[in-house]
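Listing 4. Sequential folding, example run.
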Amino acid sequence: MPYRRAPIALGAAAAGGIGYYLYSAGGNPRVAERKFEADAHRASSKLKESIPPPHDASSYRSSNYDSQSPISSSRSSSSSIRTDESAEQKGARVGQQVGGKIDSAVNDLSKAKQDTESYAKQTKAEALRKIDDFDRTVEEKAAKSKSYLSGWFGSGNK
């Protein structure tokens, strides 16, 4: 009996998995396949992390020789401290340089913004002036032509 139920259970589980990935992908089989591969890769990497590395005799010997010498371990720790301090100092120096460059870039951008705004205001004022001059000219010419035409037809309004 169990042999007859196992294929049905495996088939139902596979159909359920396929249905889940197709549903989550919106019915697109390519996207469902990519999601499945991503999940399989994630599960594989978690499994590999949980398995301890194999015991290798050569790595054990080299680690034993290094750990037996207290002088070499103290030297390596002091040199790593110096390296860490120099790395911190270098990081602080580089951070100051980057910060200065960012500040100068921000100042340049704010100056460019102010220049652009002032140029835009000047251009707008000049355009409005030109429009006003054009309107005034059109109104004067219209008034002149109106008085000229009204004289022809005998109207007393000039």
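-- end of first protein; second protein begins --
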Amino acid sequence: MAIRFALGFARDLSLRSIVVEGDSVEVIDALNSAASLVNSFGLLVEDIHNASRLFNEVTFSHVQREVNEVAHGLVRHERNIKDFCVWLEEVLDFVREKFDVDLYAEDTS
């Protein structure tokens, strides 16, 4: 669901080429596969595939959870926000800290 929302948001920003990273091997493998899944998960994957056709390029990439701290930090932060909120030009302090953790973890893996 988050990936589908992110694609819609990227489209609203008029982005044409995007990289979608996730730490679920199952989800990323399904998104990179042409095979159809006959269940509710398969319907969501199909919906994401349809949405991704609106872009020039979409890359679905798996990352280890240890190097995905920014995403997990944003999810934890979002739980305290009641309204929809977007940061386009400013970086929150905790995001910068998590980004530094991600970079270090990626360099050591």
